Amino acid sequence: MDKLLIRGGRPLNGEVLVSGAKNAALPELCAALLTAEPVTLLNVPQLQDVSTMLKLIRNMGVSAERSQDGTVRIDAGGLNTPEAPYELVKTMRASVLALGPLLARFGEATVSLPGGCAIGSRPVDQHIKGLAAMGAEIVVEHGYMIAKLPAGWTRLRGARITTDMVTVTGTENFLMAAALAEGETVLENAAQEPEISDLAEMLIAMGARIEGHGTSRIRIQGVDQLHGCTHRVVADRIEAGTFLCAVAATGGDVVLRHGRADHLDAVIEKLREAGATVQAVDGGIRVHSAGGATLKAQGFRTTEYPGFPTDMQAQFMALNCIAQGTATVTETIFENRFMHVNELVRLGARIQVDGKVAVIEGLASTSARLSGATVMATDLRASASLVIAGLVADGETVVDRIYHLDRGYDCMEAKLRGLGADIERMKA
Ligand code: UD1
Predict the structure, then answer these.
(1) Given this model, what pLDDT does residue 117 score?
(2) Is the C-beta atom of 126 inside 6 A of ligand 1?
(3) Which residue, of 68, 171, 343, 396, is most buried by count of CB atoms within 10 Å of its CB?
(4) Residue of the nearest CA to atom 11 in ligand 1?
(5) Model confidence over 340-349: pLDDT tens digits?
(6) Full-model pTM
(7) 315 is in an annotated binding site
(8) For residue 116, how far is its CA from the centre of ligand 1 (angstroms)?
């Protein structure tokens, strides 16, 4: 397993390019299953999760070509096996996004249950409930969701769907299924994340009729058929937010090209309160910080968009660890998303966890510092927090099991090296 070796203590300076969003690219690869015409996606990030999704759709008989420049051409004209097997689903929960499109276009789908996940149990009951409201008959057998249309039906039927909680991939599954359903679907309590809007824009470019995306009520008028399109994947706000935290922590001056400040309001506000200067500039975001002990720890609660993203909780916590003062962080979205805490503690951080709440006592209050050690990545965003901690720790930090990081960050160590970090990959 590859590891990262980081020698901490260098500021970050220069420019870095923000890649396309993982959480937009994954549903958009699935949206290509909704048509028999070719679809071209631009700005697709080079990530393990994208490779897994391409493997999943190729396994269905779809042709998908990926070029180095981030272009992916998909032709689902030959799709002949509407199935997502366990071997592929187990490594990536987002495979559940195949369910809606397959059911909408073929009237049947067999998709493995995603199973457990490090950050919580992450059930799919809402996906099933919403598609069932559109008429799908879904049974769960032998670890698979087996879905089909009732006898005599040729399409799903529009419905009013109110989920018990806001679910991002649930909203995406319903959007894709409703695009080809008969009649109107209204999604209440819909997720409002920028990735939902980006998917909706792609579906509209394919001929779908959608209104209200970006709000909590989305209306979809089903159409008979969708056609091909070319769509550019929106910039990754979580990758951008991760770099913002890294620069705030190490100190320095960096422009994030293609970064969207308007997608990161909650994080940027906290970074400003912490003492970093963050501005939207032409075509990106600029962050400037004196770093380390000049920062003030900030408390926050993770919530759905536009609140503070759960996907940024771990990275901001790394920054809090080295700041002045004490901060309380509450994780409201996932039940077990503090696994980075023990690893940060190994680097010298002072953190107490009680259920959903973590209290971080910033080291700067006592002039203490993080000190390098070997730590283990436990999930995607936890890995990023350990990298940030390693960048500011004294001495050498080795981050083990970075396959988690590779799932969701496009060339992270190369990008950090370009900004002046002393970081290298040690191949297994
Ligand atoms: C998506 C993101 C992930 C992010 C998360 C929350 C993708 C590919 N992944 O995950 O990076 O951390 O949103 O912003 O876009 N829930 C249920 N039943 C369901 C569905 C969800 O109980 O059927 C619960 C989950 O366990 C969780 C909460 O609802 O507690 C929100 O989860 P959800 O928004 O669905 O997360 P994902 O879409 O899986």
Answers:
(1) 54
(2) yes
(3) 171
(4) 311
(5) 999 999 999 9
(6) 0.97
(7) no
(8) 13
